[in-house]
Amino acid sequence: MIIVLKPEATQADIAHISGKLKEKGLAVHISKGSERTIIGAIGDDRLLAELPLAIFPGVESVHKILQPFKLVSREFKKENTIIRFPNGVTIGGEEIQVMAGPCAVESDEQLLFVAERVKESGAKILRGGAFKPRTSPYTFQGLGETGLKHLSKAREKTGLLVITELMDPRDLDMVEEHTDIIQIGARNMQNFRLLSDVGRARKPVLLKRGLSATIKEFLMAAEYIASQGNQDIILCERGIRTFETMTRNTLDLNAVPVLKSLTHLPILVDPSHGTGRWDLVIPMAKAGIAAGADALMIEVHNNPEEAFSDGEESLTPENFERLMRECRKVASAVDRFI
Ligand code: PEP
Ligand code: MN
Known about the structure:
Blueprint: E1 2-5, H1 11-23, E2 27-32, E3 37-42, H2 45-49, E4 59-63, E5 83-84, E6 90-91, E7 97-101, H3 108-120, E8 125-127, H4 145-158, E9 161-165, H5 172-178, E10 181-184, H6 192-199, E11 205-208, H7 215-227, E12 233-237, H8 255-262, E13 267-269, H9 271-275, H10 278-291, E14 295-299, H11 317-333
Parallel strand pairs: 7-8, 7-14, 8-9, 9-10, 10-11, 11-12, 12-13, 13-14
Antiparallel strand pairs: 1-3, 1-4, 2-3, 5-6
Helix pairs in contact: 3-4, 6-7, 10-11
């Protein structure tokens, strides 16, 4: 429900109305525009029906949120969400953040080497999987808790923030302890139990779009997380399944401006999984920024040919340096910076 207040509504009116809504157990968001204040309230329509909002002083009109996704919709919150980390890094503001690192954490030395190189090139967030969702049960499944410890150590040594994937709700506490952002992989986009659990976590969540998920399904998955209280969500476009076989997936850049219009959440583009080919990563990273992405996720490996997973889409540290140089130019062309 969107409650539009009259221009003359006072601070006391706003406090009174939002207090009444919260008393009913509704989630409330207040957006202060230059002319009018808008209050978004989410909950069962029957609870709202019990509140005769029209008679509250200051209320001009009341509207239903028409989208099936509520908390994550732009109807509920007009301004862009900016996620802020304790070290000052932001996602969703003017600065474009780049998360870079190996597909999988393979060893302490490998991770630290890549971490230092991507940091030198300007990345502020280190990625690396400790739990890997592999198609075959006979391929490398990740180092598990040992991998998480390597991530913690790399974070300590470099000062980079860390992102890693959570596959199983039973590992939530352990993953949360070692990471700054919790990644939900494409294969788990509709694992509703996992989504609800990270919705109660205290760390921001990167939600990857499912392999064949529509944008609406993607936003409904984000709503599961938000509905549990965690609204620090980054949406990741990582390519979808199409008939095309030249690339691993088809990076759906349409999704970037479509999502921007439908949601206030920051949008990240992952051209590594989106193409599956290292030689396409730089052009599609630039295209992602041009389309309006707030962040990028890039796989970087010290020796891609020997990588345990996703070597064919991983950049060498030298190519990552080139990516950053080229992306800075595109960022400035769209009034952003890296
Ligand atoms: C990954 O980031 O390494 C990964 C497995 O991604 P996705 O879930 O998008 O396939
Ligand atoms: Mn990967």
